[in-house]
Amino acid sequence: MGLKCGIVGLxxxxxxxxxxxxxxxxxxxxxYPFATKDPNLGVITVPDPRLDxxxxxxxPQKTIPTTIEILDIAxxxxxxxxxxxxxxxxxxxxxxxxxxxHVVRCFDDDNVVxxxxxxxxxxxxxxxxxxxxxxxxxxxxxxxxxxxxxxKSGEKDAVRAVACVEKIKAHIESGALARTLELEGEEKEIxxxxxxxxxxxxxxxxxxDENAIESGNEHTRAFQxxxxxxxxxxxxxxxxxxxxxxxxxxxxxxxxxxxxxGLSEPGVNKVIRASxxxxxxxxxxxxxxxxxxxxxxxxxxxxPQAAGVIHSDFEKGFxxxxxxxxxxxxxxxxxxxxxxxxxxxVEGKEYVVGDGDIMHFRFNV
Length: 365
Known about the structure:
Blueprint: E1 4-8, H1 15-23, E2 40-45, H2 49-58, E3 62-64, E4 67-72, H3 87-95, E5 99-105, H4 121-152, H5 156-173, H6 185-194, E6 202-207, H7 218-226, E7 233-237, H8 239-247, H9 251-261, H10 267-278, E8 281-287, E9 291-298, H11 303-310, H12 312-316, E10 318-324, H13 326-332, H14 335-340, E11 345-347, E12 358-363
Parallel strand pairs: 1-4, 1-5, 3-9, 5-6, 6-7
Antiparallel strand pairs: 2-4, 8-9, 10-11, 10-12
């Protein structure tokens, strides 16, 4: 199970620089609007110290971490929903992703032009939100027309759908993002089916200069205050520094650089983990001499469905799951030692997989 996260924002806020740091794919980063016309796609690994620890204990022949696809989407501008600046194309790219990393510029630099003349992350976010909302309104209105036609024939489902879509339409027309509308059951399914841009989970990335990495600045404080009601995660990084770290050849050089900057880890690690968590994704592991591997599932997934991530036959013929808790594996040091201590669980079809579980599936097809 993979996650595709799209990096969005106005032109010249540091999207492509961040993408380069995340992927080392060297996307074009330039000081003019629309330097990125077609989206750049990169695949990055999710940093997980638990995987590293398991590898050190098991010494497998192969290690496979879980991954995220990152899409660097061109900068949006006012009027994007009406096609300005190739807006319709760019909005279409946003529709393809599962989650959004919204980069806002929180640094002053006369050498890097701002598309609107001055630095104001609150205004910049509002511009992006407005364009996404306008596109969502267009989507909702089309669906409403379709449902009303079906309702005229007396279809009960269509009549209920009309009421729900009208509720969604009123919410968006008020200027509220679709993800802030609390719906349940059938209404939630209708909202999900609309695939609205503002319904996607979002992570805000404040791009600052190196002096504001730890404590932020007036721009980050104003921005955080403006999104207080969204209950969204905000990460502060310096994309320029992250790009410099990514350019270093060895892990040792990167650690030395981080130490010199007073940082414990690259900021991009925080972005990756937060992007992974946006969709309530968790990791379970399989561990053996041939391979230690991380597998991605949604929080709340039961054992048979988790097994199906490895292979559909595992789910179809599921018999049981042998489960070791990560803390127990670390404490006892090996699978055999865990078994001797009586700490390995044998679970059935109703077992809900926990984050960090080390699993072995028994099946028969």
